[in-house]
Amino acid sequence: MDKIVVKFGGSNLKTLADIKRSAKVVKAYNQHIIVVVSAFYGITNTISEAIGEAILFPEEAGKIMQRIRSIHFETADACAAGADEKKSLLEIIDVRLKELERLLKGIHYIGAVPDFTRDKILSYGERLAAPVVAALLRSEGIAAREMLPENIGLITDGKYGNATADLAASAPLLKASLTFQETAVVPGFYGTAKDGRCAIFGRGGSDYTAAVIARCTGASSFDLWKDVDGFLSSDPRVVPESKTIPFLSYAEAAELAYFGAKVLHPRTVEPLEDAGIPIRVMNVEKFNGTIEPYTEVAQDRGITEAKDAVIKSVASSEDLGILQIEGPGVGSRPGILAWAAGRLDAAAVNISSVITAQTCINLIFKKDDLAKALAVLKADVVGGVIAVEAVEDCSMIAAVGSGIRDSIGAGASMLQALADEHINVVLAQAGASPVAMYVLVKNRDRENAVRAIHSMTREDSWEK
User: What is the pLDDT of residue 303?
Assistant: First the structure.
């Protein structure tokens, strides 16, 4: 029997009908599997809102909690079968809601949100969803049980807000706990530090949870249920003729996720690649009773000369900004880049990419980190640095496909396609990844740039 880990995200859990459809999907596997669930749609954002209100306006946080309580009680009442099951489920939900309320009151009293407390609070969306899904599966005749990360041994490095699983410590514990003798329902998004405190994997981290569990239990596949037809050749809102890509290598999928494709969390492939566990991406909205992958992500099958420089997909993002460290010789002066990276690391600001020149070092960040990064570097004085400036009006467009780095003319063709549309390139980068190259353009040019590069895709040469 195959060992399969299945993940349902918040987009699969928007309405009661969505949640019940997910149970039909699980039943279609006709075997015991591991189900990893996200919070119900929008709940993590709502909890984050409650954190913001709790410090100064606890009555507003209380109103938010009433909304959360209402959603989960109504859903639980509709999902549990039988009076005893319903009573037990509502008691679990009530206990966890009260725990969440106590944590929100606690941050109000101390007037601050410690990192470990924020992680614990944010984990409650998943903690509230998992017992409901488990009860629903039981109502469908499936032997299902909720199993919490802290009880099954999902151990992390304890880096709050963006933890990484400790695979060596987790593997024997998870394998012993998750035996596939029953269907386990595991809340995603978080694990535990070695001191027992909760540590989340970052937004969208339920994909990563499922990947870690698949790796540690020796699963034969990780099935990711989405509301789209797998990975597409571009965003269909920008390029209506976008097509489903039937096969991607791990590297291609990781780069697409990194550059803005919302199909999976960028770190999802990390635990799976070495073990060769495939990711199968399904569309839950087209579920017809069968398990049918739209895209499979697996080991690179290799490329032939005919497939060199095949652009499979074009991803884009406006969620970035650039810090430009300017000065004569900053690119070759020893210690400048190390100084910037060290200061930013100490401030817990991640650098997404670096492009250097003799007179300017360009650091690329997520847009939310740009102001903090600017403040950190402007607060210091370093010899040779004349100015540190922020640039926000830019978008990143990435072309992804096997062989793109090593194929003569790939970069030139990409730049020519942009030039033909009279699009100026602010920055360009190639070579950092064997399967991706990207350009930065002004925000106003983003959609035209995506369409121009997408015109270079060659569906007839994609691997099936």
Answer: 53
Give the span between the Cα atoms of 463 and 97, in whole angstroms. Answer: 48
Q: Block means of pLDDT (10 residues each) for the chain, length 464 residues? A: 92 93 96 97 96 94 96 95 94 97 96 95 98 96 96 96 96 97 97 94 92 97 95 94 94 90 90 96 94 92 54 91 91 88 90 90 91 91 88 92 84 92 92 88 95 85 65
Residue partners of 396: CB distance under 8 A and separation at least 6: 259, 260, 316, 317, 320, 364, 438, 439, 440
> In this structure, how many other beta carbons lie within 10 angstroms of the beta carbon of residue 353?
17
* Domain span at 146: 4-228+263-268
The span from the CA of 55 to the CA of 108, in Å, is 4
Both 318 and 206 in one domain: the answer is: no
Amino acid 304: pLDDT: 45
Task: Give the count of domains, the chain.
Answer: 2
How far is Cα 436 from Cα 255, in angstroms, rounded to an integer? 7
Q: Please tell me the pTM assigned to this model.
A: 0.91
Tokens of 310: 């095949």
Give the CA angle between residues 381, 383, 388 to the nearest 5°.
55
All residues at 6 or more sequence positions from 63 whose CB lies less than 8 Å from its CB, including other chains: none
Q: Where residue 344 sits, what CATH number does that domain have? A: 3.30.2130.10
The CATH number covering residue 182 comes to 3.40.1160.10
pLDDT value at position 308?
52
Task: Give pLDDT, residue 305.
Answer: 44
Residues contacting 390, CB < 8 A, separation 6+: 321, 322, 323, 324, 370, 371, 374
CA-based nearest residue to 25, from 225, 269, 246, 250:
225
Does residue 15 sit in the same domain as residue 156? yes
